[in-house]
């Protein structure tokens, strides 16, 4: 990797792209925001879709790359511990119980950082992302809950250098964090903390609308949704009611091209380069899942320990035959009638994979799908773009041509 030494004059030479300009990653761009700044200078090295180098960046961030012979690290990345957790007093309106927002607030109020990169929504649209550098707990709280759309979180990077900030927390998903790690040394910071969430199947704003309209009975009132560990999508509506739709009842044939091409070719589901990852998929139903990748991540988690109830991670069931069966079903766009989908949902919830095995189910299903997508649409990228850990995961299954 050849990164140029920090030098603002150098940054200024690289002009940010206009919002309407085609991005260097072309249709694979996930709109991470880097190209909205003068850090576009580093795009060939930094963009997650142009130059995949997760193993190298793992060594930079965690002092070593993941141990491919360790089954947990193969799937979940470098870590020094995992747990299931809930906030004892959940934050109203958060995506889950608000562990992410709480860590960010503690880091700011305790003076560990001067600002937090997070994403609020615009006034007009609850799902349209508006990245900011939060400097108050109120601003962090306003960023709670997922904006389930591609979000240019890194578009605020120029403001960091301009503000003279030296200690920063960035909250983000895998593709944003890969680009961030690649330019980390150019930001002029004394300390960067990275709080990541897993991410999969993201969409642009138009794609989100199509997903809501195809899947929910009342798309206009959805305030929040999640693909949960009980194999159902849970929609929360403005009036507080919950609507559930079994995964197997999703209209796969109509939704096939709703996901962004970037997300169809992503293999960093678990946010390999964050110091601390907070998701849900490796935890029992209703719990959040925490992966501590390094000492910085442990320091961040320790700040909120007293506000959490925790339990060890568990793993139950065997995902492999369900994954194998889902591969041709997805490929052919099979949609079950709703009664069959509900029945299948009930059965799989009773006997299906739980805890870490559920997370493996989700990783396997997405990696096999994405591998096929890449092979068919970008065969020239396949070898370099798919990380070694993902190749090993995909190789466990029989894929159609
Ligand atoms: P909150 O306290 O509500 O905070 C949420 C934080 O997310 C905010 O700080 C906000 O800045 C940030 N954020 C919101 N939208 C975006 C965005 N588009 N890009 C970057 N940052 C954003 N977990 C899994 O285990 N499996 C998954 O498949 C999975 N998919 C996800 C897909 C997306 C698009 C996102 C954003 C998250 C996903 N997560 C997934 C993480 C999970 O949904 C929760 O975000 C996580 O558990 C934190 O919950 P919380 O209540 O602690 O967060
Ligand atoms: Fe630029 Fe980010 Fe798009 Fe890559 S994904 S082209 S770095 S905006």
From TrEMBL:
All copies of domain Coenzyme F420 hydrogenase/dehydrogenase beta subunit N-terminal, residue ranges: 82-158
A molecular-function term among this protein's GO annotations: oxidoreductase activity, acting on CH or CH2 groups, with an iron-sulfur protein as acceptor
Record region (Disordered): 1-20
Protein name: Coenzyme F420 hydrogenase
Coenzyme F420 hydrogenase/dehydrogenase beta subunit C-terminal domain ranges (all copies): 166-313
Classification via InterPro entries: Co_F420_Hydgase/DH_bsu_N, FRHB/FDHB/HCAR-like, FrhB_FdhB_C
Basic residues biased stretches: 10-20
One Pfam family here: FrhB_FdhB_C
Superkingdom classification of source: Bacteria
Source organism of the structure: Aliterella atlantica CENA595
């Amino acid at each position: 990797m050849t990164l140029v030494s920090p030098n603002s004059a150098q940054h200024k030479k690289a002009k940010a792209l206009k919002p309407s300009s085609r991005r260097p990653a072309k249709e694979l761009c996930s709109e991470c925001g880097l190209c909205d700044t003068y850090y576009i200078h580093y795009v060939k090295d930094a963009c997650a879709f142009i130059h995949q180098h997760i193993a190298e960046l793992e060594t930079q961030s965690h002092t070593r790359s993941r141990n491919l012979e360790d089954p947990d690290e193969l799937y979940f990345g470098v870590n020094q511990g995992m747990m299931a957790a809930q906030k004892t007093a959940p934050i109203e309106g958060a995506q889950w119980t608000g562990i992410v927002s709480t860590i960010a607030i503690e880091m700011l109020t305790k003076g560990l950082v001067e600002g937090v990169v997070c994403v609020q929504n615009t006034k007009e649209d609850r799902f349209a992302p508006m990245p900011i550098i939060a400097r108050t707990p109120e601003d962090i709280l306003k960023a709670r809950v997922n904006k389930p759309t591609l979000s240019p979180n890194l578009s605020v990077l120029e403001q960091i250098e301009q503000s003279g900030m030296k200690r920063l927390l960035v909250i983000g998903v895998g593709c944003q964090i890969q680009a961030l790690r690649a330019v980390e040394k150019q930001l002029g910071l004394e300390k960067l903390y990275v709080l990541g969430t897993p991410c999969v199947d993201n969409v642009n704003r138009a794609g989100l609308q199509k997903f809501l309209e195809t899947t929910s009975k009342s798309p206009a009132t959805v305030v929040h949704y999640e693909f949960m560990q009980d194999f159902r999508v849970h929609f929360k509506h403005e009036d507080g009611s919950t609507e559930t739709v079994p995964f197997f009842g999703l209209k796969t044939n109509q939704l096939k091209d709703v996901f962004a091409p970037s997300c169809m070719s992503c293999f960093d589901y678990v946010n390999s380069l964050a110091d601390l990852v907070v998701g849900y998929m490796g935890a029992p139903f209703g719990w959040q899942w925490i992966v501590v990748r390094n000492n910085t991540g442990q320091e961040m988690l320790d700040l909120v320990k007293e506000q959490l109830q925790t339990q060890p991670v568990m793993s139950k069931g065997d995902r492999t035959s369900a994954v194998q069966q889902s591969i041709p079903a997805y490929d052919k766009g099979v949609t079950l009638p709703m009664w069959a989908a509900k029945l299948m949902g009930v059965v799989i919830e009773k006997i299906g994979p739980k805890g870490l095995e559920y997370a493996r189910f989700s990783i396997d299903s997405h990696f096999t799908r994405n591998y096929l997508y890449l092979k068919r649409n970008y065969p020239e990228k396949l070898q370099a773009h798919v990380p070694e850990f993902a190749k090993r995961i995909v190789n466990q299954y029989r894929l159609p041509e």
